[in-house]
Design brief:
single chain; mainly alpha; elongated
Length: 110
Amino acid sequence: MEKTKLYDELVDVEKNLQTMLTQVGEMKDVVDAVLEKNLNLELENQHLRDRLEKLEREDLPEDSRQELSKSRLNLEKLYEQGFHVCKDFYGSRRENHEECVFCSHMIYGK
């Protein structure tokens, strides 16, 4: 009788494992869908940021807009991402994206 009981328990464990395997497969499909959607949203977000940046530059008056060198464009991009680019605070985060006169001078100054 012990052998029969042991066999029945083994069959139950096998059924439970098959059920869990099915559940794991379903969870994997959901995670795949979420990751794909996240990637698409990140790409769309970047495109929207690029578009917004372009529109903001177009809205500047001609006399205030000037052609920036590649290095100054890189500094401007870092500044817009929330980092200081001035020599005093370079690399530190700007709290609440506050304006920094020194950074502005570094980017747009002559």
